[in-house]
Amino acid sequence: MSSDLHPSQLHQHLQMYTCAKWSFWGSLAVSCGLLFLGATQKPESKPWILGASVGVLEVGRRHRQTAKLLLESLGDIDRASRVNFQAWARANTQPTAQLALTVSSIDANWKPENLITDPVEYIQKKQKHVALVGGTGDGKSTFTQYLSSKIGGRVVVYDSDAKPDDWAWLDQADVIGRKGNFKAIDTAMGNDLKTLEELVELRGERGDNAIAGRERFMIAEEFPILVDECDNATTWIKRHAKRGRRYKQFICALAQNDTAENYGLQGDKDTLYSCFVLVRLGQFGRDYARTKLKDPQLEQWLKAGGKRRFMVDDCPCELDLSNWGAGGREQQETSSGGDEEVQSQPTAMNEFEQAILTWGQSHAGELLKARTLQQSTRLFADVSAEDIRIMFRAMADRGLGEVEGVSDRLGWKWSS
Question: Max CA-CA distance within the chain?
Fold first, then answer.
């Protein structure tokens, strides 16, 4: 069957099948033509023409037999053709195009087998720190806020680029390095190293009770920059990575790449992977699923979930933090003190989702298809139909409308 054939063999078999099939039909046509020609020729020429016709017909019969044998080895010819085309595309197209060919759509009910919903439980069980990888807008600050609230301890943030409203949930005194003050960060990291030494001595002399109440959760934003600008940064991360958890000094280092060099651990990947849980947000998580895990279906699943789906080491995680943070961490009770349901604030939407929502609210009950958006507005002119359908699913997952149909027939409609 086609599933037992190597892609190179599959391609060769398909070529041979096509040639044999068309050769048969060509031979049949030539044979019929010779017979017609023979009927109009002189009697002495007819035996030669008839012989040629029979010879051509025999060649066609053999090619037909060859086509039958090849068809048996290929099985479902349509499926074999698709597999062959996908193999060709993988070798001749960009990764994004390969993904669209490999996974045309994702089952809305599909979930990864190793899915986790509590990353804190996973981190605590591993007894590791966190290396957080994400780009602008991926939700790094929200995730670190959630993480710090669950792990506990006094929160300290090292951030040289912090704006006045960044880390607003913290006391201003706990954000060190504003306005590019790397000297303040370097000094504080040096003090952290001294504090760690003190805790080692205290615990060694008087046990765990001596360090109770001195737990800290330290967040280092854009760690590659700190490594370049602060002399203590490399020593700070190495010593806390190997000993900090034992003394309740938890660190969360943020970067936009997951290489050891970005965390000041040049040539020391073992420390990165043995002492840190790597949390990859946004595109970084999707790239990891595609390039490292070789799982395009997981990549599509991550993409469909937006910010609430990401990777924790090799485990996909689903955690909705859309209402976490200032003004949205918990639903407020009604003024009457009853059990009335309080509707949470809607998740912020990008311009594409807002356009879809606006269309749905003005065409309530009508099913919106990707092609309609591509043809009716310039905003979606350069967006692929599959990406639009992914937006449909993501919005439906967040309670914004609902989807109907599957694959290329999938559509979205507004439901209040």
Answer: 120
Strands 129-133 and 249-255: parallel
Length of the chain: 416
Task: Yes or no: say if 305 and 139 are a contact pair by the CB < 8 Å rule.
Answer: no
Q: List Cβ<8 Å contacts ≥24 apart for 293-301.
A: 296/98, 296/99, 296/102, 296/103, 297/103, 297/106, 297/110, 298/112, 299/99, 299/103, 300/99, 300/103, 300/105, 300/106, 300/390, 301/106, 301/110, 301/111, 301/112
Instruction: Give every CB contact of residue 306 below 8 A, 6+ residues apart in sequence.
Output: 394, 398
The answer to whether 161 and 202 are in contact (CB under 8 A) is no
CB 250 within 8 A of CB 129: yes
Q: What is the C-alpha separation between 197 and 203, in angstroms, rounded?
A: 10
DSSP for 271-330, written as a single string: HHHHHEEEEE-HHHHHHHHHHTS--HHHHHHHHHHGGGEEEETTEEEE---TT-STTTSS
pTM, to two decimals? 0.56
> pLDDT by residue (tens digit) across 198-240?
999 999 998 888 888 889 999 999 999 999 999 999 999 999 9
pLDDT tens digits, residue range 280-301?
999 999 999 999 999 998 999 9
Q: Residue 311: beta bridge partners?
A: 280, 316
Contacts of 11 (CB under 8 A, 6+ apart): 84, 87, 88
The tokens for 209 are 């009770």
Can you tell me the distance from the alpha carbon of 17 to that of 20, in angstroms, rounded to the nearest whole number?
Answer: 5
Question: In this structure, what are the phi and psi dihedrals at residue 58, rounded to the nearest 5 degrees?
Answer: -65, -40
Residue with tokens 């007819």: 46
Dihedral (CA of 62, 65, 67, 70) sign: negative
